[in-house]
UniProtKB/TrEMBL annotation:
WD repeat boundaries on the chain: 6-47, 48-89
Taxonomic lineage from the root: Eukaryota, Viridiplantae, Chlorophyta, core chlorophytes, Chlorophyceae
Protein name, as recorded: Serine-threonine kinase receptor-associated protein
Gene Ontology BP, a term: cytoplasmic translational initiation
Single GO cellular component term: eukaryotic translation initiation factor 3 complex, eIF3m
PROSITE patterns tied to this protein: WD_REPEATS_1, WD_REPEATS_2, WD_REPEATS_REGION
PANTHER family: EUKARYOTIC TRANSLATION INITIATION FACTOR 3 SUBUNIT I
Provenance organism: Tetrabaena socialis
C-alpha cells in the first residue's frame, strides 16, 4: 500500500481525527491552524483560522457538522466543520490540553494544564445542539492532584471518564462526584469498555475491562 503524504503543517502534529465515515480527517499541530483533509486523495480542503497558540486536541460531531478544538491559547473553539466558520469560544485561565464529546454528544469534557498557581483540571460542559444555546460555564469542574492530562475519554454510559497522564498514569473518574478511582495496569476494573494507551517506551497497550477481569495485550 502506497501512503498518501499530507503536507500542511510546519510544526509537529499533536492529534489527528477521522470523522465517522472515514472520508474526512482533521489534523492539529503546534502551529495555529488545524487542517481538514480528504482522506481519499490527501487533498487539503481548508484550515480553521482563529487560535493564537499550539492546537493540542480536537474532536468532531457524529454528523461531521461541528469541530471542537483546544489550544495553548487558553480557549476551546467550536467550528462549523464544512465552512471553517468559528461558532463559539470557551475561554479558560489555563491552556486546554484535551477535549472529548460524550456518547450522544450531550456533554463535552475538556482538560486544562497546570498554569502559574492553577493545578490541572477537568471541566464538563453541556454541548448544545443549537449553538445559540451553548454556555461557556461548565456544569461541573474539578482539579487534579498532579500530572498533566494528555487525553480524556468517556466510558460507562457517560458516567465515568478515563484520563491518561504524563508518566504513564491512567485514572478513572466518577463524573458525578469528581473523585478518582484507582486504576492500575493489572488492577481489577468494572468499566465495561476497551481503551488504549501509548507511552514513550514505544508500546501500544489495549486494555480490556469487563465485570470479571482486566487484561492488557501488547502489539
Amino acid at each position: 500500500m502506497r501512503p498518501i503524504l499530507l503536507k500542511g503543517h510546519e510544526r509537529p502534529l499533536t492529534q489527528v481525527k477521522y470523522n465517522r465515515e472515514g472520508d474526512l480527517l482533521v489534523s492539529c499541530a503546534k502551529n495555529l491552524q488545524p487542517c481538514l483533509w480528504s482522506s481519499d486523495d490527501g487533498r487539503r480542503i481548508g484550515t480553521y483560522e482563529g487560535h493564537n497558540g499550539a492546537v493540542w486536541t480536537c474532536d468532531m460531531t457524529w454528523d461531521s457538522d461541528r469541530l471542537i478544538t483546544g489550544s495553548a491559547d487558553q480557549t476551546i473553539r467550536i467550528w462549523d466543520l464544512p465552512t471553517g466558520k468559528e461558532l463559539f469560544e470557551i475561554r479558560h485561565r489555563e491552556p486546554c490540553r484535551a477535549v472529548k464529546l460524550s456518547a450522544g454528544e450531550r456533554f463535552l469534557a475538556a482538560t486544562t494544564d497546570a498554569f502559574i498557581e492553577s493545578p490541572p483540571g477537568i471541566h464538563i460542559y453541556n454541548f448544545a445542539e443549537d449553538v445559540s444555546e451553548q454556555s461557556a460555564t461548565p456544569v461541573v469542574a474539578w482539579t487534579v492532584p498532579k500530572g498533566r492530562i494528555t487525553r480524556v475519554y468517556w466510558t460507562d454510559c457517560n458516567r465515568k471518564l478515563i484520563t491518561s497522564h504524563d508518566g504513564g498514569l491512567v485514572r478513572r473518574w466518577d463524573v458525578e462526584v469528581s473523585r478518582p478511582q484507582g486504576l492500575g495496569l493489572l488492577a481489577a476494573g468494572r468499566v465495561g469498555a476497551v481503551f488504549t494507551t501509548g507511552g514513550e517506551d514505544g508500546y501500544v497497550r489495549v486494555h480490556h475491562m469487563d465485570l470479571d477481569y482486566f487484561t492488557t495485550k501488547f502489539f
